Amino acid sequence: MTRQEVLGRKPLRVLEKIRESLDKINEKMEIMIELHKRGRKEFQLLPDAPLDVMTLLSMPDHLRKTAMTVCRLGRATAEEAAKQTHRARAVESGYLNQLVIMGHLKKERVGRKAYFYTEKENQG
Amino acid sequence: MIVLGMSIAVHSYKGGTGKTLFSINLAATLVQHGKKVCLMDLDFRAPSLTTFFGAEKAECWLNDYLNGTCKIEKVLINHSQRINEGGKLFVALANPSTEAIRDMSAKDRKWEMRALGRLLALRNPILNDNGFDYLILDTSPGLQYSSINAIVSTDLVIVVTTFDKSDVEGTKRMLHELYELFEKKTNIIVNKVLYDVSSKSTEKDMQNKITEMYQVPVLGIVPCFCDVSKAEGAFIFTQEKPSHPFAKIVDEMANRIEKNNSM
After folding, report:
1. How many domains does chain A have?
2. ipTM score assigned to the predicted complex
3. Is B1 within a domain?
4. Cα–Cα 20 to 30 A to B56, which of A26, A101, B87, B166?
5. A54/B145 CB distance under 8 A
6. Closest Cα in chain A, distance from residue B183 (Å)
């Protein structure tokens, strides 16, 4: 690898790091906004709120679409869900975190990516 | 992954509208058209396909698959010999024992959530891995967990209704408050129609009226045939009496479904 190539890669890595950090900040802000809306001070998962069809029926349309997508995929990142719903990744990420706070979805981080799922068993 | 087949739920607001009759006869007609069809009994409160197909060959029930205790392949029974010619027919039965019905009625929300996951997960193994063209789910009437799970997990819902006033009102409500929320592609069959629809113009008028009433496409209008009632579900009507007007109407429905699927 030439010196020029090495130098060319460094800014890319830095940009990647910045994007990663911005994603994390964005996610934390979404959670804070949602907690504020619900009058809760700290992040605490609701004990058990299974995502059954009756719960899906009682949800507002925008959340139902997101929840149905995760049910269908079994396990999905915000990007994967956004591809299915044809909405922006940031919007989808907001809805997914909202569903996590409501106790309907679970969230797990694997490296840089955050995965959303209903139950371990249903992961595809 | 491209899935070429289609999953269909046959549902109704009220009981006794003819869901099972159409599920069986549509499945048989599609098989006669050379298709590979999988018919499943999702009416766990009143299983009916066992009476029709017999339970002798059942290694596992659909209940076991939803309970997570067996694979779907163990539930499928080959009944292709019941059809004169064409493709293949496989059937998955619900356990008709009182104990099983009681057990299924007592499931909690968490179980229903898992059942939905398992029904959603059925599509690819059935339509892709096992090469079925159609997966038909015969459901229980009304807003039961098992039927809504079936509605949510399929590509097309066929609603079987009658001109009974309470059925019309209930079906309208159900279309608006359930199917629309899940953005379901829906077709309607109006069964036991007492008007004469033998002429094309009367049929067309009625079709327009029904479409206007329910705001969904009409798959078929079926007159009240005494011969069908007299058969008491003892045989596959379209198989035994292929020249009967009922068989012809079901054949047209199957053609519409196939056309729908190829679009």
Report:
1. 1
2. 0.78
3. no
4. B87
5. yes
6. 9
